[in-house]
Amino acid sequence: MKRHLDPHGPMTYQIRVQGRLDEDWSDWLSGLTVAFAWADDGSPITTLAGPVADQAALRGILTRIWDANLTVLSVTTGDVP
Question: What mean pLDDT is reported for the chain?
Answer without folding.
Answer: 88
